[in-house]
Amino acid sequence: MTTCLEWTSIAHCITDSPQVILQKLFLELTFQKGKILPHRKFLAQRGDQYSDSHRACIHAALNILEYQRILDEET
């Protein structure tokens, strides 16, 4: 991802406009959702062959929750 669009933290966005901050957050949320979509169909499956899909979905979902926490905290 291009550095100017990459989300780091709210502290690193001091000079960015509120619109740019929201665009960065929404871009990151879309990226995380894109990580979940290809693996979603395997979430209900059991077995070791699906563990990578489970991990990918859980990791992306936790990232989304963290971004939601940041938005809630900052607004």
Write a concise synopsis of the structure shown.
This protein has 75 residues and is an all-alpha fold. The protein has 2 helices and no strands.
Question: What features would you describe in this structure?
Answer:
This protein has a domain at 33-75. Helix content is 57%, strand content 0%. It has two helices and no strands. Helix 1 runs antiparallel to helix 2 (51-74). The mean pLDDT is 87.
Gap between N and C termini: 26 Å
The pLDDT mean sits at: 87
Strand content: under 5%
Radius of gyration, in angstroms, nearest whole number: 15 Å
Individual helix count:
2
Number of DSSP strand runs: 0
Helix amount: 55-70%
- Low confidence ranges: none
Q: Name the overall outline.
A: elongated
Order of helices and strands: HH
How would a textbook summarize the main sheet?
Answer: none
Question: Which structural category do the helix and sheet elements fall into?
Answer: mainly alpha
Lay out the secondary structure.
Elements: H1 18-36, H2 51-74
Helix pairs in contact: 1-2
Features:
single chain; 75 residues; mainly alpha; 2 helices; elongated
